[in-house]
Write a structure and sequence with these properties.
The chain is α/β, with parallel strands linked by helices. It contains 10 helices and 13 strands. The protein has one domain: Alpha-Beta Barrel (TIM Barrel). An 8-stranded parallel beta sheet has the order 3-13-12-10-9-8-7-4. Strands 5-6-11 form a 3-stranded antiparallel beta sheet. It has a two-stranded antiparallel ribbon with strand order 1-2. The protein starts with 8 loop residues before the first helix and ends in an 11-residue tail after the last helix.
Length: about 325
């Protein structure tokens, strides 16, 4: 993986599908089995998956499966295709193990992603979550209809949906994290999903009152769980990244863990069968074990793929299959 340090960030990002395909084909691991569990009608052979934003167009699904992941999240998908935000959109800090991006949901659009996923599903043996968002030029007043359109579009092929209202890279998107808006959307979304789980991905930058509102609205609307968290607008001291755009990696970890703890505390007896997925600052197998011990049901990684490498799935399986590893996972 050292070679990727010497390739400019945006070029490395563009070359990643080619490199991943070659790497995965040379290994072709089985899906690793550790802490396997059933949730609703979905079976997870293991609890570590790919975060949204990695495989935006469902073009690398076979490679992820060959690396032994427990589940996938593709997207963010928008109704219409859109290009990245203008200017610089990606940066890496190898010393501090942080990533920065200002991509803004670049993807090939719902029609092309739907076709790609239909082709991929014939060979996939792992659950696939579809992360959905609104187009950047759409008004927030039209956002609900766009989310519902995407759920209807992918209903037959997705195993679950992720409502992305927390990216910092689409202007005004985080305004949709309110209690009233989420409850309204989820009431309609769960009907359109026809039994497929619908989760909400939240921001790490909310205060406790905002979080409580988002949780209450989502649960009242019938959501199936939460993904915690998206990237952050906060910056560590002496950070060289721009003030806009989202930070992930090491300096997101504490904020993500804090929101996980707050969410688990807030839900308490309302937890029932809600699925809680932790993501943000998962850089190594030990980080996976820590999030599970804190109470997450599943864990996702993005920055770990950059700073640790794709062997994180195999190495996590080896760690988690050791009898003395501390865990507090759901049955």
């Amino acid at each position: 993986m050292k070679i990727w340090q010497y390739i400019p960030a945006r070029l490395a990002h563009a070359l990643a599908p080619w490199g991943l395909g070659f790497y995965a084909a040379a290994r072709d691991y089985p899906t690793f089995n550790w802490d396997s569990f059933q949730w609703k009608n979905l079976f997870f052979a293991n609890r570590l998956g790919i975060a949204g934003g990695v495989d935006k167009n469902a073009t690398m699904t076979a490679s992820w499966q060959r690396l032994g992941v427990g589940f996938l999240e593709i997207g963010t998908v928008t109704p219409m295709a859109q290009s990245p935000n203008p200017g610089k959109i990606f940066g890496r800090d190898w010393e501090n193990r942080n990533l920065w991006n200002k991509m803004g949901f670049p993807n090939d659009g719902s029609e092309d992603v739907y076709y790609n996923l239909c082709q991929a599903k014939t060979e996939l043996r792992i659950p696939v979550f579809v992360n959905i968002g609104k187009n950047r030029n759409s008004k927030n007043s039209d956002a609900e209809n766009e989310y519902l359109f995407l759920i209807e579009k992918f209903q037959a092929i997705a195993d679950a949906f992720v409502i992305n209202v927390s990216s910092p890279n689409t202007a005004g998107l985080r305004e949709l994290q309110t209690q009233a808006w989420l409850e309204s959307l989820l009431r309609r979304a769960t009907t359109v999903a026809k039994g497929k789980p619908v989760l909400v991905k939240l921001s790490p930058d909310m205060d406790e009152d905002e979080l409580q509102g988002s949780l209450k609205g989502s649960v009242a609307g019938g959501c199936s769980g939460f993904i915690l968290t998206n990237t952050t607008l906060s910056r560590p001291p002496n950070c060289s990244f721009a003030k806009d755009g989202g930070l992930s990696g090491k300096d997101l970890a504490e904020k993500s863990k804090n929101l996980l703890k707050l969410t688990l505390s807030a839900l308490k007896d309302k937890r029932k069968d809600l699925l809680i997925i932790s993501v943000g600052g998962i850089l190594c197998p030990e980080d996976v074990a820590e999030r599970l011990a804190l109470g997450a049901d599943l864990v996702q990684t993005y920055s770990g793929l950059v700073f640790y490498g794709p062997e994180i799935f195999k190495d996590t399986a080896q760690l988690m299959n050791q009898p003395d590893v501390s865990r507090n996972v759901s049955a």
